């Protein structure tokens, strides 16, 4: 019996890309669970298969073996309970549609009245602070604003979990700080679950309630770390806490060890 | 909620619309005016009756085309051109989309399509005359048989090269097949499709004239050939002038539609240049 609070369960996930020159094992053996309402960050060395993992979770890629379950039901394709925010906002928003049109597109096949749809779009744009830009086109906006549009599109879709794939990798540091706070605020106010994939260690510790540290490819979960920082976080004071420094140093060390391919000492065999 | 400051880029506006149109007009008409003057000077000195001066041609233009000939010759020609172009656009985009979205069909058909495109369309006129007779249908079919290729091949190319992240986005949000076609595949291919339509329109105009010169009892092509055979030289030139004007009007109309359809495309390019 799955736990009632469990939203997402990943069990012995494995993904092998078949190549004529030899198969590539992107994900080795990966298991974790995520409760409803959690904000979990996944961090790992570059090239460790984070994007592959995320596509398997979102139902965009079929795993070679293993299980991905939402509320106890296997995920076999894109689910209405999930919304993905991609890293490349420039290629994920449609330039021929307005900001409004982009946010509205995924709602068209939902059986909603015109008024309900309008409300959802306006509400989502308002939540990311872009109500004034509804009639603009994405390419008229800065990178950070474009990623806000992508977040609004995901919010309007009303998913249970927001899956974010290194969403802020391509924006400047100040914009990134604003967007991080936006994600925390949306998580707190809308009680939406967030699975946030990043390569940025500080970002993972600042954002997450939990951080999953991945190993080098073939990927496994190296460590499942609870982040015991206060729930109210702020860019200046939280990042100055000794506990924050301690946690980030710990994760940093884990990643370094992962890069060198050292085994995890304290992990029981599956 | 914090207010997020953000700048929305506006396309730069340099000068007033009026002065820009005036400048464009000066540039567009300056050289033709100069050439007309040169032509008039040369024509008054030349002895050949095959090169009448512009005033004679202008007179012939009014006498020939303003009046019943407009209804008997110009309108049927334009109707064939319009039908042929419209059919080419519809068939080219529809077939191109199906072929572009179906990999096995594309691989099967591509060599054949390249061959058919390489066949000069006027050689089909004798064949079509046998198959369809000397009818309007024959002329429209000839126009389509030449004008459809640039649209078809460009649509196939545009449809197959839809960006992978955009496609994945649509999949992840479970956007339906028809919505994907209408909001993703066709708009993404539209710059290429429009490039194909631009080529197709000039091909269609050429084929309209040629098909009428071959086999017709009305139309611009027929009239021009008739004037030439009967040594009505000024009238012949006036027909050529009218064809040129039709071509220019077609290009202007296309430009207006293109600006509307590809506004986002030109907008992006302008933002990147700025």
UniProtKB/TrEMBL annotation, chain A:
Domain of life: Bacteria
GO MF terms held by the record: ATP binding; ATP hydrolysis activity
Keyword line: ATP-binding, Nucleotide-binding, Transport
Cited InterPro entries: AAA+_ATPase (IPR003593), ABC_transporter-like_ATP-bd (IPR003439), ABC_transporter-like_CS (IPR017871), ABC_transporter_ATP-bind (IPR050166), P-loop_NTPase (IPR027417)
ABC transporter domain location: 8-241
Name of a matching Pfam family: ABC_tran
Name used for this protein in its record: NitT/TauT family transport system ATP-binding protein
Organism: Micromonospora matsumotoense
UniProtKB/TrEMBL annotation, chain B:
GO CC, any one term: plasma membrane
Domain ABC transmembrane type-1 positions: 74-258
Compartments, as annotated in UniProt: Cell membrane
Membrane topology of the entry: Multi-pass membrane protein
Main location: membrane
Highest taxon of the lineage: Bacteria
Family from the record: Belongs to the binding-protein-dependent transport system permease family.
Name the UniProt record assigns to this protein: ABC-type nitrate/sulfonate/bicarbonate transport system, permease component
Organism the protein comes from: Micromonospora matsumotoense
